[in-house]
Specification:
With 541 residues, the chain is of the alpha/beta class. It folds into three domains: 171 residues, no CATH class; 186 residues, von Willebrand factor, type A domain (Rossmann fold, 3-Layer(aba) Sandwich), CATH 3.40.50.410; 129 residues, 60s Ribosomal Protein L30, Chain: A, CATH 3.30.1330. The protein has 13 helices and 20 strands. Strands 11, 12, 13, 14, 15, 16 and 17 form a seven-stranded mixed β-sheet that branches. Strands 1, 2, 8, 9 and 10 form a five-stranded antiparallel β-sheet that branches. Strands 3-4-7 form a three-stranded antiparallel β-sheet, with no helix packed on it. Strand 12 and strand 13 form a beta hairpin. Helix 4 runs antiparallel to helix 5 and helix 6 runs parallel beside helix 8. The N and C termini lie far apart (57 Å).
């Protein structure tokens, strides 16, 4: 676009956009579709509907929408969109969005985004940013007088940025390059499987290997045999899932889903994918099920803790065993590793070895048509699978060493039992808002530190009958009375965010400040003091 081609300085506003699809009746779960970081030379908010031109709603679904028409969408890289053109808001138009409604959330620019590379650092962005809320009315000053209360935005005040040729070269290095899949003729024969599910790990640890993994996914789909069986694709990363669901095998729809597989980033909760998504799709079924997974095997819990720290590795293997136990037919796990991490390979071998029909291989072994055809024979036509030697099974955990609430912390060590599903917990198993930051000696949440609150809002929305006490804590610096008051005000700030931004009922929350009276670490180092400055969410019985 001209604004990026010009070598002369321009004045613009820096935005970061997170696009999501809002499902309607009959659609799947909400999935992050794209993110954007870009500069626009005028005030109207730019929104880009991924891969589609058309209108984009601004405001609360179910109320009047302001809409703008989007044009010239170009992809910078994984989950980032730009540069784009924006024709402006279209008066008082309203539209009904139903099943194909999209909405946007604006977040701060991160260092890795194109605009943050040598132009504006994350620290500088924080100093210049203010938090606004999108609503159905927009003014030239950037305010939204009639807030819809649904969407969050970070605005960086008008800047003079030198958009020179160097920016173009920097942007050119950002995208994950597309890697062409290997094409092969599907083998013929009697299909031995009744269900075929392909899992693709698109989490943050896969970024360097995303192109390779996606090419492997497309290659496998292209060589799946024709037949009368159910098939589907599930892409996962962090809390996000993009799924076709299981339905009668249709090569065209599966190829489209594989080609559009997004980079979702986030953690690598393979255990949860097996426990919930795979179990829901093929659990308690009959006939042979082939579960193919492309992953680096670097499983983490939702807090980002490694397999060793969280026990997520053992939990992943146990989840695979539980699926096998729930079914009356063979369940075969075929693990394909991206990269060559030894610990990841051990985990994937363990999952593959849960039954004697599973297999383990590296993605580099599937780069020829012949290898792909043999893979399809082994997996879908019932050919002899590649051996999957598994390490010795670990000794069973004592009966008492269980994780009842599924937060990754075993019951004997869990200081906060009955945590809600998908809530982020600390090493004690308590629901702690670890990514939150407040103004120094103040209760206002600093702009740019609300991303984790959005995840907490989703957890609370999924549990509408649960009431929560929001507990504020401080370190021991300063007078005790001051700290007690400060912790109470910070708890109230979190409650107000849940109510005003998340749209949750105020009646669901109580707030309490504990000041410095409940430390979780000695107040002897800056790191321990940071641990003690926290906000926790406690379920009210």
């Amino acid at each position: 676009m001209p604004m990026f081609m010009s070598a002369a300085p321009i004045t613009g506003i820096l935005w970061h956009l997170d696009l999501r699809r809002r499902p309607g009746k009959g659609t799947g779960s909400v999935s992050k579709m794209a993110q954007a970081g870009f500069v626009v030379p005028t005030d109207p908010l730019p929104l880009c509907r991924r891969k589609q031109a058309g209108r984009f709603a601004i405001g609360r679904v179910g109320h009047g929408h302001r809409a703008g028409r989007i044009r010239n969408c170009g992809v910078f890289g994984p989950r980032r969109i730009g540069p784009i053109g924006f024709d402006g808001l279209s008066g008082n138009e309203t539209e009904s969005y139903g099943r194909k409604s999209w909405w946007g959330r604006i977040r701060p620019i991160r260092d890795r985004h194109p605009v943050g590379s040598g132009i504006l650092s994350w620290e500088e962005a924080q100093k210049r940013s203010i938090r606004l809320v999108l609503g159905p009315a927009f003014s030239e000053s950037g305010s939204f007088p009639d807030s819809g209360g649904e969407l969050e935005m970070m605005k960086i005040e008008p800047l003079v940025l030198a958009m020179v040729a160097a920016l173009m070269s920097a942007c050119a290095s950002v995208p994950i390059p597309y890697q062409s899949p290997v094409k092969a003729t599907p083998p013929r024969g009697q299909v031995a499987v009744r269900q075929a599910m392909t899992l693709f790990d698109a989490s943050g640890s896969q970024e360097a290997r995303f192109a390779e993994g996606k090419a492997t996914l497309e290659s496998i789909v292209s060589v799946m045999p024709d037949g009368n069986y159910d098939a589907g694709i599930l892409v996962f990363g962090g809390y996000d899932r993009v799924s076709t669901g299981l339905s009668r095998f249709n090569r065209a729809s599966l190829e489209a889903a594989a080609k559009d597989a997004p980079f979702l980033k986030g953690t690598t909760p393979i255990f949860d994918v097996l426990e919930n998504d795979v179990a829901a799709a093929v659990g308690h079924g009959s006939g042979r099920a082939a579960i193919v997974m492309i992953s680096d095997g670097l499983v983490t819990d939702y807090a980002g803790r490694s397999a060793e720290e969280s026990g997520a590795g053992e939990r992943t293997v146990e989840a695979a065993r539980a699926i096998v136990a729930s079914r009356s037919g063979d369940t075969c796990f075929h693990m394909i590793q991206s990269g060559d991490d030894a610990a990841g390979a051990d985990l994937l071998r363990s999952v593959a070895g849960v039954t004697n029909c599973g297999s383990f291989r590296n993605a580099t072994s599937l780069t020829t048509p012949g290898a792909l055809q043999q893979f399809a024979r082994d997996v879908y036509l019932g050919g002899k699978p590649v051996p999957a030697p598994a390490p010795p099974r670990p000794a069973p955990m004592p009966a008492a060493a269980v994780d009842t609430d599924g937060d990754g912390v075993l019951d004997p060590e869990d200081a906060c039992p009955n945590t809600l599903k998908k809530a982020r917990v600390d090493s004690r198993g308590c629901w702690t808002l670890s990514d939150l930051r407040f103004e120094v000696n103040g209760a206002a949440i600093e702009p740019g530190f609300t991303a984790s609150l959005q995840e907490d809002i989703e957890v609370l929305r999924a549990n509408p009958d649960v009431r929560i006490r929001i507990d504020g804590h401080t370190d021991s610096d300063g007078p005790a009375a001051y700290n007690l008051d400060l912790s109470a005000r910070r708890a109230e700030s979190v409650r107000d965010y849940f109510v005003n931004v998340g749209g949750l009922s105020k009646d669901r929350f109580e707030t309490k400040g504990f000041g410095e009276t409940r430390p979780i670490a000695p107040n002897d180092t800056p790191a321990n003091k940071r641990r003690n400055r926290r906000v926790e969410l406690t379920i009210i019985e």
